[in-house]
Amino acid sequence: MKKVNKSPHPEWALKYRSPGTELRYLKEHYYLYSVEAITVSSENLLAKVGIHIT
User: Fold this and answer.
1) What is the distance between the alpha carbons of residues 36 and 41, in angstroms, rounded to a whole number?
2) Residues 1-27: pLDDT tens digits?
């Protein structure tokens, strides 16, 4: 039975993704970002912070 890929990204791009990272597709290019979730204490909201790593 073949494994179904639920990601919109191609296989070659997914091999670079690891936990704590996120792939983004912008203007026909793929970028890898390091992401971290932080809590905004004044509003009790969760915010995602991304740093471009490649």
Assistant:
1) 16
2) 666 667 788 888 888 888 888 888 889
pTM over 0.85: no
**C-alpha span between 21 and 9 (Å, rounded):** 14
Please answer whether residues 28 and 11 qualify as being in contact, where contact means their C-beta atoms are separated by less than 8 angstroms.
no
Task: Locate 50 and state its tokens.
Answer: 């991304």
The Cα 7–Cα 23 span in angstroms is 10
What are the phi and psi torsion angles at 33 (to 5°)? Answer: -120, 140
Helices (H), the chain: 11-14
